Amino acid sequence: MTVTVRFAPSPTGHIHIGNSRTALFNWLFAQKAGGSFILRFDDTDLERSKAEYADAIAGDLAWLGIRPDRIERQSKRVEAYDKAAQILKAAGLLYPCYETPDELERRRSRARALGRPPVYDRAGLKQTAEEHARFEAEGRKPHWRFVLPNHDGDPFATRRTDVSWTDLCRGDQTVDLASLSDPVLIRADGTYLYTLPSIVDDIDMGVTHVIRGEDHVANTGVQIAIFQALGANVPVFAHHNLLTTRDGEGLSKRKGALSIGSLREAGLEPMSVASLAVLTGTSAAVEAMPDLESLSHKFDLAAVSRSAAKFDPEELTGLNARLVHDMPFEAVRERLANLGIAADETFWTVIRGNCAKVGDALTYWNIAHGSISAVIDAEDDDFVRAARAALPDGEVTPETWSVWTAVLKETTGRKGRKLFMPLRKAVTGLEHGPDMGDFLPLIGRQNILARLPG
């Protein structure tokens, strides 16, 4: 059996780091098994689905390193859903219901008031052809519900019916179909809800494993019943915990919370995002992995916690910095050039340990090659003037800083922070940065003298 998984976003907005968690789980699972990954756009909502969102989602996945083996669009497969619906109707498993949303809500309210669960009472199954004709004459259109197999022949005498599966994240799971309403599969306007198209696609595309968020657990029992009603093999399920903010707030595409596009534009590395998205909420330590192959070695669905996966967006900065600090020059050469930095390996080696993002290199390039505003405190003015006169002659080398500061320590009596900090601030304009012994040769004698008052 070839493992086949899918990621099925709705192109109604930009995906965020929480969505990327599901995509990455599927991708890594397929890669470890030598399987196939399908990007399947749930774009049957023609009013809200936009081609630009689909393009953006594909681009965001590519940035993360996810390259689908195939791309499908549900909007082009409506005939397949119509065929499946006809099969269910012919089997008496899909029935029309003419209640309005207000009527359904009133029934649910009555049930709750009587202390009963607000489960649909299958009133639509009792309606006659004459009643249907009357509703149609009133201008009503039916929505269609699937009859759950929670009875022994009489759908109005339900019994406990457990549907069980072994979840790759959550272990043994059971849903009682008698506790659920018959699901609506087709809206009154004739369009399909998510459930039936998803199942038909999984069947037709040979999906073997469905890896998705835990918010779908309750739906799984229903979906298993529909798989079986269509005579199909049921895939293996895995429901992972969802990413939330530190305050437990869920993420939303509509709010644009931590969208992948915004993280990319902020200069973050894809592997810092991928590492946080995958490892948060698991038993594995959250650390910056250099590539998806390395991340796959730490990835294990069984290691996913059942508790909420709360994460701190600020962790991205730390993870990103660790990745940047380890990057060889060849990995950033082109990116530095795009920033207008005509750097060599020496420059990158000196400054990368102070860069949280590759783009931070521009700050140090400008310090080394541009003009800066020297920062000289009043109490340090005489000291800095003396430092200018004491700068060793000749070419600035990695030894210049130690020789220079040794002379100043001897002549001025300053030491420690009072010795080093005024020089750093005057020469670089910063209180922190690369090792000054390594950085001074990049700045050069001319710039050093230009920044020190004579």
From TrEMBL:
Residues 3-317 form the Glutamyl/glutaminyl-tRNA synthetase class Ib catalytic domain. Residues 397-452 form the Aminoacyl-tRNA synthetase class I anticodon-binding domain. ATP binds at K253. GO terms for biological process: glutamyl-tRNA aminoacylation. GO terms for molecular function: ATP binding; glutamate-tRNA ligase activity; tRNA binding; zinc ion binding. It catalyses: tRNA(Glu) + L-glutamate + ATP = L-glutamyl-tRNA(Glu) + AMP + diphosphate. A motif ('HIGH' region) lies at residues 9-19. This is Glutamate--tRNA ligase. It comes from Roseibium aquae.
